Amino acid sequence: MTAIRLAVAGRQVVVFERNDELGGKLTSRSRDGFTFDTGPSLLTLPTLIDDVFRLAGTSLENEVTLQRLDPSFRYFWPDASTVTFRDQPIATAEALESWSPGSGSEYLALLARARTIWHVSNRTFFAGDMSSPFSLLRRMQSPRDFLRIDAFRTLQSRGEKTFGDTRLRQWLGRYATYSGSDPARAPATLACIAAVEADFGSWYVRGGLGALRDAMVRVAQRAGVELRLGTEVTKIDATPRRVTGLRLADEEVVAPVVVVNADAEHMYRDLLPHWRRLGAVERTERSTSGIAVLVGVEGRTPMIGHHNVWFSRDYRREFADIRAGRVPTEPTIYGCVSSVTDASQAPANCENWFLLINTPADSTIDARQHGPWLLERLAAIGPDLRRRARFAEVIGPHDIAMRYRSPGGAIYGTSSNGRNAAFRRPAMRGPRKGLYLVGGATHPGGGLPLVTMSARMVSDLILRGYRER
Ligand SMILES: Cc1cc2nc3c(=O)[nH]c(=O)nc-3n(C[C@H](O)[C@H](O)[C@H](O)COP(=O)(O)OP(=O)(O)OC[C@H]3O[C@@H](n4cnc5c(N)ncnc54)[C@H](O)[C@@H]3O)c2cc1C
Asked: With 70 as the cut, is the pLDDT of residue 287 above it?
C-alpha cells in the first residue's frame, strides 16, 4: 500500500520480498480443491484499501467482488448456548434481547460508547504518526478526549461494567485478540472494533482474501512499482546521519529512502543493528501467535456460519496460560468456513475449515502435536470434524516466524497490553534520516485496516520530507 501511494506520487519504487509471493501474512493455501485463507479471513473497513486504489485510478469494486456478510458471526459457549450477530446493529440487538433479556439495550449502549471511541481515535490516534505522546496530544481537542477513548479501563472491565450476562463480557473481550492482546490488560479503547464491525460491516472477498492480495499486486504493477520476489534484504546501509540503500545476497542497492515492512525486532537486530531501539522492542510484550489447522471436510455442518467462535469457559485462564508461555489448555477456537458463502472454496458438498487458537509468540511450540488435539477440543464443544476430514494441515508459531521473519511467530508485532502500549510501539521514523517502518510492527498496529492506515501515514511523512528538501 505504501509502494502504491509513493509510485502514484511519482517516486521510483522497488519492493523486495523474501518469499516467492507478495502479500506477507495476507495469503492463502490451496489443496485438493479446497482453498484456505491462512492469514486474514475477515476484512473490515475496505474503504481504506479503496482509497489507495482510487489514488491509482481504479477502485476496490473494479478489482474484486466484495460481499458484506449477514450474519456476520456465530458465537458458541461451552454451555451449548449460541447467538448470531447480524449485519445491522438493531437486528443484532433484537437477537440478543430474545436470547438474554436486557442485553439488547446493553449492546446498543456499548455501541454508542464504541462509536465515540472510533470518532475520537480517527482524528487523533489514527490521524498521523506517534513520534512522541505530544503528537497525540496536539490532535486532542480537549483533555476530555482521553476519557472518551476509554483508555483508563481494560476491555474486560468495560465488559463487566456494561453487560449483566458474562457471555457478552467474553464476546467484548474477544476484540483484544484482534491485536493479539489480553482482554484483561488491553485498553477498553479496543471496543471501537465492535462499532466498526456493526456499522461498517464484516466483509468477504469472493474467491478468498487471496484475491485481495492479487488485486493489490496488480494495482502496484500498474502504478509502476517494481516487484522483486524471492529477494531477501540482508542489511540496510546508512551513514551515521542517513540511510543510503540496502544489501541483497549479491547486490547493493542505492536508495535515498528505505521503508521497512518487516518486524522491528528483525530490523534492529539484523538489518540495521541498533541496540537502544532493539532493547526497547525486546522490553515490549509481543502480540500472541497462533496455531491454525486447515481441514478439508466432507459433507455439510449444521448451525455454522462463515465466521464462528467457540469460546473457552474463561478468557482469564486462557490468557494466564499464554502469559505463562503455555498453549492454553482450554482455548477459544475461531473457525472460518468461507465455503458457506463461496462454493468455489471447496469441492461439491465439502467445507474448508480454518481453525485458529491464540498461543504465546514462541517458535519452539510444537504445533504439529497440537493439530489432532485441537480437533478433539472442537469436538468436545462443537462439531466433530474428525471422521469427515480428508486432511488436516497445521501451521504454528514456528512457521509464521520462519516465513515472515516475525520473532516468535508474533502475528501483530507488539501487543496492546497495558495503558502505554500504544506509545511503546516501535516508531515509524527510523534512527536515520530516510528510514521508516510501516505495517503491523509499528504505529498504529496490526490487522489489515491498521496496516493500511500505517501506509498512509508513512507515505505522508516521506512525501512531506521530499518537499522539505
Ligand atoms: C493467522 C492470521 C490470521 C489473521 N487474521 C486477520 C483478520 O482476520 N483480519 C485482519 O485484518 N488481519 C488479520 N491478520 C493480521 C494481518 O494479516 C497482518 O496484521 C497484516 O497482514 C500484516 O501486514 P504487514 O505488511 O505489516 O506484515 P507482513 O504481512 O508480515 O509483511 C511483511 C513482509 O516482509 C517480508 N520480509 C521480512 N523480512 C524481510 C527481509 N529481510 N527481506 C525481504 N522481505 C522480508 C515478509 O516475508 C513479509 O512478506 C491475521 C494474521 C494471521 C497470521
From this structure: yes
The predicted pLDDT at position 469 comes to: 40
Nearest to 187 by CA among 216, 220, 153: 153
pLDDT grade, residue 466 (50/70/90)?
Answer: low
What distances in angstroms separate CA 454 from CA 97, 165, 179, 242, 451, one per listed residue? Answer: 38, 36, 15, 22, 5
- Largest Cα span, the chain: 67
Give distance in angstroms: CA of 383 to centre of ligand 1.
30
d(CA 367, CA 455): 32
- For ligand 1, atom 49: residue with the closest CA: 24
The per-residue pLDDT for 146 is 84
Which residues, 6 or more positions from 75, have their beta carbon under 8 angstroms from its beta carbon? 82, 83, 84, 85, 167, 171, 308, 309, 311
pTM of the entire predicted model: 0.96
Provide the 8-state DSSP code for 69. Answer: -
DSSP state of 25: T
Cell of 12: 521510483
C-alpha cell at 55: 489514488
Q: How far is CA 384 from the centre of its chain?
A: 28
Is residue 468 predicted with pLDDT exceeding 70? Answer: no
Amino acid at residue number 101: P
SS3 state at 436:
strand
Give distance in angstroms: CA of 404 to centre of ligand 1. 7
**Residue pointed to by grid coordinates 529512502:** 257
Residue with grid cell 493479539, as numbered in its chain: 180
411 Cβ below 6 A of ligand 1: yes
**What's the CA gap between 299 and 348, in Å, rounded?**
9
Q: How far apart are CA 207 and CA 214, in angstroms?
A: 11
- In sequence order, the β-bridge partners of residue 298 are 350
Taking the C-alpha atoms of residue 373 and residue 386, their distance in angstroms, rounded to an integer, is 11
Rounded Cα distance between 321 and 339, Å, is 33
pLDDT digits (tens, 9 = 90+) for 302-313: 999 999 999 999
Give me the phi and psi of 369, to 5 degrees please: -65, -25
First-to-last CA distance in the chain? 24
Which domains can be identified in the chain, with CATH numbers? 27-86+288-411 (3.30.519.10)
444 prior amide bond cis, ω within 30: yes
Residue whose Cα lies nearest atom 52 of ligand 1: it is 39
Residues 38, 32 contacting (CB under 8 angstroms): no
Q: How far apart are CA 265 and CA 281, in angstroms?
A: 6
Give the contacts of 381 (CB within 8 A, at least 6 positions apart).
76, 78, 310, 333
Pocket perturbation via mutation, ligand 1, pick of 1, 5, 261, 269 by most ligand atoms within 8 A of CB: 261
Q: What is the mean pLDDT of residues 396-418?
A: 96
